[in-house]
Amino acid sequence: MTTRRLVLTRSAAVIGAASTGLLLPEIVRAQSDKVRVGFMLPYTGTFAQLGVAIENGFRMALNEQGGKLGGREVEFFKVDDESNPAKGIENATRLVQRDKVDVLVGTVHSGVQMGIHKVARDSGVLSLIPNAGVHVATRAQCAPNVFRTSFSNSQPTLALGKAMMERGHKKAVWITWNYAAGDEAFEGFEKSYTEAGGTIIKKLGLPFPNVEFQALLTEIASLNPDAVACFFAGGGAAKFLRDFAAAGLNKNIQLYGSGFLTEGVLDAAGDAANGVLTTMHYSDALDTPRNKKFRLDYAKTFRLQPDVYAVQGYDTGLLLIKGANAVKGDLSNKQALYAAMNGAEIDSPRGKWKMSAAHNPIQDMYLRKVENKENKVIGIAAKAVADPATGCRMG
Ligand code: PHB
Hints:
Oligomer: single chain
Bound molecules: P-hydroxybenzoic acid
CATH superfamily of the largest domain: Response regulator
Helix content: 40-55%
CATH topology of the largest domain: Rossmann fold
Radius of gyration: 22 Å
Number of strands: 14
């Protein structure tokens, strides 16, 4: 990691050299020798662990290449975006203008992503989305320089409705944070559940990142649905699982969610998570050599169990490696770079997936059940799920 002081010292050197007219070409060449990667991720707040897992996964992919991208060394720059949409544009601009990154890797929160997206579209800098599922980024505002390696917000929940109905859960309450990720996850849930014949008896919500669930849980108890379906993630998800169980709701009401509900939180949630059913493009328990090796290497390197966020970070690294190798490290050769990433097949721990024409993964969704602090696979809930990419026209 380059510290801020180092960056400042170096720019001062460049300015100094410029004013004397000496050494400048050499310094400029030395600078451009390294690929500049900017992480814009949450390192504080309810999504802090998600940011760390993404960065770890990304670094792991590069480390498998000797730490290089297309033969070039890599220099990292970091900004804590705090999952604060109000600072999204400013933080992304800092990485692009001050740190002159060649590629932006970020972020988790859909609202913050919109800030990155504006900066990416205005500046043309390569933008890799390792999580945030905001629809518009790969629909009406899709762009040649923006690639998502994670999911669109409605992809996981599009697989949920049928699984719920197959288990006889015909009346459900939906609950989430009221912001793009929750609203768009609802879109997928509403479609899949009503098409399968289910009835949504109430939609409940609270502002992000609030975790005062008590009044809403009381309301759920009085509505007495067959099931509750939700979108929560990170620290807030752990608290929701604990509060749902502490209120005794897990005894009579089956809890479902998009799989983020049970990612990275199983230690924190403890027994409260047992039996929760979710749909997601990854499971800890995928019994493939690829996943087993990934999990072992990650655990050895970081002394942490990987989760879906670590996988998405890793896949972001794999995608960039593919692109960088195709242009032998010359990321300014954008046409060839994007061509290599467009339609790429990624051999991921989640299973192989393909990048769609709108730059979003086409991927299987697994049905999972939490057992003994693990997301066990029950089966494939939906195969090769693609986002509809409504309104995407690549410029
Ligand atoms: C999002 O804001 O897009 C988001 C955040 C956390 C998740 C999934 C989606 O786990």
